[in-house]
Specification:
The protein has about 270 residues and is mainly α. About 75% of the residues lie in helices and about 5% in strands. The chain has one domain. It is globular and about 60 Å long. Keywords: Cell membrane, Hydrolase, Membrane, Protease, Transmembrane, Transmembrane helix.
């Protein structure tokens, strides 16, 4: 991949990741701007091995149905839009893009469909199906794989912290506060998104099967370690500057770190190809 093409890939990953997190946790306006910028950049990216798809009208109808159905469901149940809704919208728009005549837009749609569908499947498995089967994976993961390791880091560097619940710690810095480690803080959303990006990139770029599996495993490991680093940074921010500043950093720090990780992994793929 030439330097110009690689630069576009890295910018798209950064913008799309930021858009997803901003829409679900930060500013919807900022998220929309980042998302549109990512789409515009991606249409300028020449992807190898792409062929036009047939039955375009069916893709358009399916995409519109998905978007409208999600809007109607949330409106009828008075639910606020969340990360899953963002990815459902993205899947619907990707299918619409697949049905258009412009091949560059179709490229965007194919990549987007891989990303969004992968995220949705993983979300349904870990957050819906596991819940229905009474598999307490999320609380166990948050406690043993996120909370305990990060608390241990704070204890090593001498920051007073107390575990008061499965996913909650008490931190005494500039103010006395409790911090819940769960939901977005678990890092699973970012991990799902990273898996979707790497899977989509490997499919569109026609990467070797074994290489794709290796990159996916490496991506998950790096994403996990990076999320531990992010949580520790949030602890330190809360300890030094207070909870309000921590929440502001929480909204933006995650997708910035994640974008850097995704960029590094894509660069690694290019070196190994």
């Amino acid at each position: 991949m030439d330097s110009k093409r690689l630069t576009i890939v890295l910018l798209v990953l950064a913008l799309f990741t930021g858009a997803t997190i901003e829409i679900s946790e930060g500013s919807v306006y900022n998220g929309i701007v980042l998302f549109l910028a990512a789409m515009i950049l991606f249409t300028r990216l020449p992807l190898a091995g792409f062929t036009s798809l047939r039955y375009s009208k069916l893709y358009i109808l399916a995409g519109l149905f998905i978007v409208i159905a999600d809007v109607i469901y949330n409106f009828s149940t008075n639910n606020s839009l969340g990360t899953l809704d963002t990815m459902v919208f993205f899947l619907g728009l990707s299918l619409v893009a697949l049905g258009l005549e412009n091949q560059q837009i179709q490229r965007l749609g194919e990549f987007g469909a891989y990303i969004s569908s992968t995220f949705i499947v993983l979300f349904l498995i870990f957050y819906i199906i596991f819940g229905k089967l009474n598999i307490d994976f999320l609380h166990v993961f948050d406690h043993y794989f996120i909370l305990l390791p990060t608390v241990k880091v704070l204890e090593i560097i001498g920051i007073p912290v107390e575990i008061i619940a499965t996913e909650t710690v008490r931190l005494q810095g500039v103010e006395d506060m409790t911090i819940v480690i769960g939901g977005p803080c678990s890092g699973l959303y970012s991990m799902f998104l990273l898996i979707g990006i790497i899977f989509g990139y490997s499919r569109v770029e026609k990467l070797d099967y074994k290489m794709s599996l290796f990159i996916l495993g490496l991506s998950i490991f790096i994403a996990y370690i990076s999320n531990l680093f992010r949580v520790v940074v949030l602890y330190l921010t809360a300890y030094i500057y207070g909870q309000e500043t921590m929440m502001m950093v929480h909204t933006h720090l995650g997708w910035i770190i994640f974008a850097v990780i995704a960029a590094a992994i894509i660069r690694f793929i290019e070196l190994k190809k």
